[in-house]
Specification:
Length: 89
């Protein structure tokens, strides 16, 4: 959304969520320091957090589904931050 950004890692069959992160999460919101959750800085925080949570759950490789969104702006920043934090696409 314009106010928040969300990321989730689903099982291969799509039946369960294995890890998730968003600007609505308490930890991420605290890192934002009261700033908007709908900008590139917030996307970078969510990308790093989803990678951290995925690696903690034993997941190191994922397929990236943009849900039809163009690969630029916040979507690109989120993916780049997740890659930098160790998640492989």
């Amino acid at each position: 959304t314009n106010s928040h950004i969300y990321a989730a890692i689903h099982s291969a069959d799509g039946g369960s969520v294995l890890a998730s992160a968003s600007t609505v999460d308490k930890e991420v919101r605290a890192s934002l320091g009261g700033k908007s959750g709908g900008n590139k800085d917030a996307a970078a925080l969510v990308g790093a957090e989803i990678a951290k949570r995925a690696i903690a759950a034993g997941i190191s490789e994922v397929a990236f589904d943009r849900s039809g969104l163009a690969y630029h702006g916040r979507v690109k920043v989120l993916a780049d931050a997740a890659r930098e934090a160790g998640l492989k696409f």
